[in-house]
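Researcher: Go.
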Amino acid sequence: MQHPAAEGASDDDAPEISDVLRPHAASSEPRVGPYGSWSSSIDADLVAGTAISLSEPWVDGDDVYWLESRAAERGRRTLLRHGLDGVTRDLTPNPFRVGNGVHEYGGASYAVSGGRVIASSQADGRLWRLDSDGVLPAEAITPEGPWRYADITFDPRAERVYAVRETHDAADPNDFTLVRNEIVALALDGSDGSGRVLVTGPDFVAAPRPSPDGARLAWIEWDLPDMPWDSTRLRVAEVAADGGLVNPRTIAGGPGISVDQPRWSPSGVLHVVSDETEWWNLYAFDGPDGPDGRKRNLAPMAAELTGPAWVFGYSTYGFLPDGAILVIARADGRDRLFRIGAGGRSGVLPLETAFTEFGGLRVRDDGSVLAIGAGPREGAVLARLDPRTGDVRGVLARSLSTPLDPGVLPEPESIVFPTTDGATARGLFFAPRNAGWRGPDGELPPLIVIIHGGPTAAASSALSLDRAFYTSRGIAVVAVDYRGSTGYGRPYRDALKGRWGIVDVDDAVAAARFLADRGSVDAARLVIRGGSSGGYTTLAAACFVPDVFAAGISHYGIADLELLRVDGHKFECRYEESMVGPWTDEGRQVYRERSPIHFLDRVRIPLLMFQGLDDRVVPPSQLDAMVAAFTERGLPHVAMTFEGEGHGFRRADTRKAVFRTELGFLARLFGFLPADPGVEPLEIRGLA
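Model: Structure:
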């Protein structure tokens, strides 16, 4: 149940950025056409294959590294380096795919130090030493075996790296009860085989971070049934002369507290992000006792400085040469950049940037800053930022190579609306926008209610071609930050606990009705759409509130909560206990009552369902069961499966098929004719 930050998984997705945009030559009078039928330059080919995903920025001296995920190359992730000579080199040409399957979602798949590059291969799970010029062939430093590696970090005083290693049983690799997660040390020359185990015992470990002198190691660990945003522990130990760990101890976190992103400043002060104030804020162990003393909140604020750790390697703060710290903080549905004065004692300065979303931040030795950022009308870029102003000083990579017409790009409107239990929920509304078209007088547009995954993720204000595909055709979109979403403090995040399948559905309904009541959308043409856990909310809405939405679209959605207990994976094997309830004889009845698969006879609306056949998070068997039930009952539905796709569609041909099918599905339901060549209203089995 991953949010869009996961490796390759995505439902949705500045000065010097403006050159991406092509001026729009609007006609004097827009044409009039039914909502949904407008022609648009954002076609399925553009959405499916043109954009690339930028992630995991890294700096090493004068060199900058990052990953690109390319739908046009069947979702392959490649590592690039931009050197002082101004040349960008691909260090992992096809077929090498950088990535890992630790926790199934991966992250932090490579590390660089002094020109030495170590990366994980998605294909075989091994770690490989790469040539920083992309010329010499890669050399494996770990043997073949049932191992996966993530969160790689160089040891500053030995020729080795630290990493999180996940071991699967060789005889039964899909049995999550046999999976072990450990921190290991691995020799750079591969001489120690599978490496030396340093931390073992906890169910999960993450973020092994050595101090600058290599004398200490900090890391994060936690145990089932907790997820890393529930309760984690920050641990520290001394590194002995033989490389082992001595005197490991817990210094932060514990029950009900989530700590994340341990990092040492250049002077050796340990920092960590903790949510003990109900917001993920930045703390420093800068007292006389160092990591064994008390920590201090450097900048108390009602904002989140990290996110739910579905993937490894969050990087939302960095140390500047003058002692200040640059941080990314999220509040009110968007990211902002702040400069915390040295030691937090000289104030906190907000920096104005063109970005409303960030995907990672790194600080170079010279104090310049690298960040992946995006805005409502700009695709993601890897940019150099001025650490004092936030201004863009250069762009190294762009997610979009094709200029876009600004006349078809929507603007987000932040909305707050009442929902059940006297609570309020939040979201981002995107009205239809196409300078060449307008809807008929007296007609209101259809609405797609998008439910993000996670369910701890958050709606994004950044430019999304997925959204613009619809808004540019005259279909409105609202991305709902239902209770349980990240970015609004821990109480809002915890409001979903024990109530998954209830409050998320309530908030989706409330968002749709709020927009319909104020006259923004047509109440008779509401569609709910989501992937993974968002797909679960979609299916639950179809079963339990069948009179609200006209249709549902599910991408690899969860239909049977009970099956996740026996046919899932280790990272989430007990996640449902906090979201639904304890796995007891009595509790199992709650799981059954919340599972759409048992209430398909209540469905009154057409459903469109997509599923990857290699999905290890939501097994394809769930779709098979739904199709069988719908077919037996004669319920209207369309189901499509894709070979070679897992939890999140990465391939251009898959994504193109999905968007063309969705448009044809909506055209059939709402009676419009798409302007896209070759897209006709879709035949829906069981629909009269």
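Model: The longest strand covers residues 52-60.
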